Amino acid sequence: MKNIHVSTTVNGDELEFVCAPGETLLDSLRDRLGLKGAKEGCGTGDCGACTVEMNGEIVCSCLVLGAEAEGADLRTVEGMATGDKLHALQRIFIDEAALQCGICTPGILVAAQTLLERNPDPSESEIRYWLAGNLCRCTGYDKIVRAVQSAAAEMRGA
Amino acid sequence: MVAVTLWGALRDQADGQEVVEVEASNFKELLDALEASHPGLKPQIERGVSVAIDGRVYRNSWFTEIRPDSEVVLMPYMKGG
Amino acid sequence: MNFPAKTKRDFKVVGTRVARPDGVDKVTGRALYGADFSVPGMLVGRILRSPHAHARIRNIDASRAEALAGVKAVVTAADFGVPEDAALRDIQDNCMAREKALYHGHAVAAVAAKDAETAKAALKLIEVDYEVLPHVTDVDAAMAADAPVVQEGRADETVPEGSGPNVTMYTEFGHGDLEAGFAKADLVLERSFKTEATHQGYIEPHACLATLTGGRGELWCTTQGQYLVRELCAGILGMEASQLRVTASEIGGGFGGKTTVFIEPVALALSRKSGRPVKIVMTRSEIFCATGPTISSSMDVKIGITRDGRITAGEATLRYQGGAFPCETVSMGAQAAFAAYDLEAVRTYGWNALTNRPKEAAYRAPGAPVSIYAVESVVDELCQEFGLDPLEIRLRNAARDGTKASYGPTFDQIGLVATLEAAKAHPHYTAPLGENQGRGLSCGFWFNFGGNTCVSLNLNNDGTVGITEGNPDIGGSRASISMMAAEELGIPYDKVRTVITDTNSLGHNDVTDGSRVTFAVGLATIEAARAAIKVMCARVAKIWGIDEEAVVWEDGHAKPSGPNAGDFDPMSIEEIAAIASETGGPIAGHHEVNAEGAGVSFGVHLADVEVDPETGATKVVRYTVFQDAGKAVHPDYVEGQMQGGSVQGIGWALNEEYIYDEDGRLQNAGFLDYRIPVASDLPMIEPVILEIPNPGHPYGVRGVGETSIVPPLAALSNAVSRAAGIRLHELPMSPPKILKAMMSKG
């Protein structure tokens, strides 16, 4: 089958790529657009390392086809910082050591960003359930949950 | 002479002795002396052994000093994760 | 100048919580992991794996695959030699089956093709003629005299005659008169335990990119040790080390599982045959079927205790299986089992048996979690029998300085009692519990290692410092290394940058394992800094025209040692660097060492759980970790090790297991069915760091990476026992097992 031409918006930039009909959005982002921030940890939607935001919803990009990105508005970890200025979540993840190996970090940051845009003051339990689809094997989640709480407080101006 | 404590499974290879005495002033001399006096220990020594000298575990530093009054315990060569 | 051993000192950088140097790359998605690197002309490699648990490979016909358009190479075991060294041969045979497929998922052939689709299609065209053989996956079944034989002739000289055909080793540790010890007890309990294999569960798949043309190789891969990868691959492919350069990518978790090779020799062989770079990335299902897991076990433990709580004797028999190749992990389990206790009579016996399962790979404190689980469960049950406080009983019987360890040597400067005292004093220990809740306690232990290490430290012309080291940074170690260099040099942390280099740029470094990096690389870094300080002091002595011995180094400056040395203004590191060219050339320090004296590590965990009487599901509601770090260089990352290891142990205790069907096929080779803990399963994990300096390190550092996975298994089992009134003797304690036990109790 022929490749498909896709026009989409990624982190505010209008971009085009071609992809195979069966190709995942994750592979399109990584291999066609060179955005390697989203990672493949399982390929079955169980680990969340490939999390990106698509039309305001967080998705496992390994479960979405590249072709489905036609006309979509995508946000990835590469779009979180503004120029040289890190997003509060990114900065606080570093300051509070919320990552060890860092492989799950892009997915968790994207998911957490969407959470805080919807709910500026989530409880610990809300954070834990929101991030339940993002596996981290290094940290035990403690410092991740605390970093999201700290970022939420800072973003609220508390 | 240095008294070397063997772990249980090695005793069958050393005529049933728990403690063997050898002439050695460092780790390497200890291994050589053990092989010479108890050839049955050779396969394990070749697979790898550590030695605890006065409570500290050394994995393979030949020239680690052993004093005559040191407590010397042979241990399997170990690896972590 | 001289460097006195100082373990108690006022630290300026060490002990602070600075930002890690690789942080920005990792939060912006720029950090390059194993699968993130590509080169022009690259092929995609894929591996064909055995659908059978045990089968003789009668023939492999790859002609149809080779004929498929876009396929550039196919390799099988026939493309490799047969290494003489047994350990290397086993590693190679695990990468590519020779003669027999030994477990479900064992690699039998590999393809390199122009793209993934073609490679996948080619795998389907490879015809393997299997003769399916009887198989065994359970450790007890594998020990039996009439068990299917996994491999012939693998028993070493320690195995007694008359043992089953799969037994590969026997070991025994301990001292004292067991019979007399048990005779002194008021109660002797004997219990049998079983634990299932678990996987390290790193989120990043194994991935590599290999080029091997004209006899020269370049390999990029995710690994805990690029030097070991070079050694193994060069051995397997018959190359000299100088001809293969290995660069470690950023590593997305390892926990011991990335201390060997699986796909790297295969990718190199495919590249050699095709003449093109070849990239292989494992799928998650391949990772579960053919990498990792830890051992599974069957154990018997017998412990005697007096009515007032003195343990009189302890005995444990451990049977481990580590897959289809000989595995010595049981010897570490047998040494660690009773390490927390001061016993007059103790004996552990260890057996290893081959099974039709993947080759065991190290997993955090290999061997120790399960044997200590069994011992700590029986100690807890004895406490329950006599109504004794489990923490007091641990204190009463704890190993301390001068105790003859259950594995032989006499302990020197260990922190177990201090750790137990800290747990006793913590509010968690006496906090009230709710309905269906229970509190469990367990001690844990790990040896910790040092090992071969090279560090090179270079002074830049502006007085900043570059450090080159060879151990992949798996949890923030670049920060700790920079901190120790800054501390020793007396300069700010942000003046130091540490990078991890390839195999051509430094001498041999052992793998990032055994909790060794902060200890051993830190030690080498401090020594490298001292070497550079000596050079700087010598240069300044020449400028001032005084003796080298009359110059001291303080706070980033060379200073006269006292009034007699002369009256000179201190020279800063920046000033010294700026004129290095004029005073003799570039300034550097380096250190190469086989670091010994790592110092053992103890931990104590407190766990509160709530067991749902309707479902048997266990929820951890409070968790506190007490551990001796010697000196916490970067407390955040020490805490991170304590928290992360605890949660891996919690997963091991409650949910994680390898499930095989009757055909020996792995049934849960994915994160959906092999369930590691997720954020909503857990409470905060409170870390309490103790600092009892390790005399073997200039700053007193002890490794902290492994001990934390050890105590959760028994801590949770003991907590469940107190919450639900039932004691399981197997792991994991998944909800159906707990519910069944609760229902049969009535």
TrEMBL record, chain A:
One of its GO terms (molecular function) is 2 iron, 2 sulfur cluster binding. It holds the Pfam family Fer2_2. The keyword Iron-sulfur applies. InterPro entries: 2Fe-2S-bd (IPR002888), 2Fe-2S-bd_dom_sf (IPR036884), 2Fe-2S_ferredoxin-like_sf (IPR036010), 2Fe-2S_ferredoxin-type (IPR001041), 2Fe2S_fd_BS (IPR006058), Beta-grasp_dom_sf (IPR012675), Diverse_Oxidoreductases (IPR051452). The keyword Iron-sulfur applies. Keywords: 2Fe-2S, Iron, Iron-sulfur, Metal-binding, Oxidoreductase. This is (2Fe-2S)-binding protein. Gene3D superfamilies: 3.10.20.30, [2Fe-2S]-binding domain. Residues 4-80 form the 2Fe-2S ferredoxin-type domain.
UniProtKB/TrEMBL annotation, chain B:
Pfam families: ThiS (PF02597). Transmembrane segments: none annotated. InterPro entries: Beta-grasp_dom_sf, Mopterin_synth/thiamin_S_b, ThiS/MoaD-like. Signal peptide: none annotated. CDD domains: Ubl_MoaD_like. This is MoaD/ThiS family protein. It comes from Roseovarius spongiae.
Automatic annotation (TrEMBL), chain C:
Coiled coil: none annotated. Gene3D superfamilies: Aldehyde oxidase/xanthine dehydrogenase, a/b hammerhead, Aldehyde oxidase/xanthine dehydrogenase, molybdopterin binding domain. Keywords: Molybdenum, Oxidoreductase. InterPro entries: Ald_Oxase/Xan_DH_a/b (IPR000674), Ald_Oxase/Xan_DH_a/b_sf (IPR036856), Ald_Oxase/xanthine_DH-like (IPR016208), AldOxase/xan_DH_MoCoBD1 (IPR008274), AldOxase/xan_DH_MoCoBD2 (IPR046867), AldOxase/xan_DH_Mopterin-bd_sf (IPR037165). Pfam families: Ald_Xan_dh_C, MoCoBD_1, MoCoBD_2. Residues 28-134 form the Aldehyde oxidase/xanthine dehydrogenase a/b hammerhead domain. GO terms for molecular function: iron ion binding; oxidoreductase activity. PANTHER family: ALDEHYDE OXIDASE 1-RELATED, XANTHINE DEHYDROGENASE. This is Xanthine dehydrogenase family protein molybdopterin-binding subunit.
